[in-house]
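Deliverable D2.4 — example input (structure tokens):
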């Protein structure tokens, strides 16, 4: 395990879900920008491999394996944040999707999603902010999704938790105005990561046009943060799509959601 040398005085960024996808890209991008890292996720060996890679960019990285749906693990990460005197950035990124109807699903999975997408960012942000406000600088990025503006069967908890993250971030931005601490809700669309492997979704179902690269999403987020963007939607096509979602009357959004639900049922019947 790589640990910080006390003589180093670099800003520290803590990234959750750093063992894959967007989280690993955030860690790489922040290391290149002069940060040391605290890497959080469940898979220790992945985090250790990333820490070794980051060392080649001159960044020290501490590996902090944790299941953020577990109370004791979450508390350990909160305590680590409170002890971190030069925490410059917190990236609440860990997340997953579920492709099951809420009313037919195992509650444990839905509950784990609520814990990971809502409770963990709440606790970690609450641990990070007092120090950041005291120092008059720092940033929190909450990785949300364009799904925050959607309603859909089989994405009930996902859409709800991402909508929470947007609302949470927007209100925090108001509360933190003038403190020097910035917050951002990052709302990507379909992005090439391991997310869809975990979900069990065939990527070919979505036209290539809609797919983004993880490094692009992260660069857009960090650029947006510099410019004070509280809600960051990478790429023009998703900015337009989100504007359409926001302007859409409720009945039309529900109609589209129901159409998608029927298509899903048809797919399930065919697979039987
Ligand atoms: N990819 C997309 O199309 C897309 C679009 C919009 C938003 N997002 C959001 O982007 C974020 C990152 O997802 P990704 O696309 O990078 O997916 P990914 O490649 O599957 O990465 C997910 C990360 O979350 C971690 N994680 C999952 N459950 C965890 C738990 N219980 N405790 C701690 N860490 C956990 C995973 O690590 P371990 O398995 O090692 O714990 C992994 O590092 C998520 O919040 C997702 O909702 C993704």
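Example output (designed residues):
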């Amino acid at each position: 395990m790589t640990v910080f040398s006390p003589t180093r005085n670099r800003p520290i960024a803590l990234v959750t879900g750093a063992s894959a996808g967007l989280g690993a890209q955030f860690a790489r991008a922040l290391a290149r920008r002069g940060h040391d890292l605290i890497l959080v996720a469940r898979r220790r060996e992945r985090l250790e491999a990333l820490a070794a890679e980051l060392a080649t960019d001159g960044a020290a990285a501490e590996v902090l394996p944790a299941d953020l749906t577990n109370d004791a693990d979450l508390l350990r990460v909160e305590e680590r944040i409170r002890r971190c005197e030069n925490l410059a950035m917190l990236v609440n990124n860990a997340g997953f999707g579920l492709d099951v109807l809420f009313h037919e699903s195992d509650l444990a999975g839905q509950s784990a999603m609520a814990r990971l997408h809502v409770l963990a960012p709440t606790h970690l942000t609450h641990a990070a902010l007092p120090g950041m406000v005291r120092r008059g600088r720092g940033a929190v990025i909450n990785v949300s999704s364009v799904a925050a503006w959607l309603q859909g069967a089989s994405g009930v908890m996902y859409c709800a938790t991402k909508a929470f993250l947007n609302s949470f971030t927007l209100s925090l931005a108001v509360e933190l105005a003038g403190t020097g601490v910035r917050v951002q809700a990052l709302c990507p669309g379909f992005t090439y990561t391991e997310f869809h492997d975990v979900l069990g979704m065939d990527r070919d179902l979505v036209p290539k046009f809609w797919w983004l690269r993880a490094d692009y999403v992260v660069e857009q987020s960090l650029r947006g943060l510099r410019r004070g963007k509280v809600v960051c939607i990478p790429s023009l096509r998703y900015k337009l799509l989100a504007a359409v979602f926001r302007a859409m009357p409720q009945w039309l959004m529900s109609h589209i959601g129901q159409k998608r639900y029927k298509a899903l049922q048809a797919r399930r019947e065919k697979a039987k």
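Residues 15 and 91 are 5 Å apart (CA to CA).
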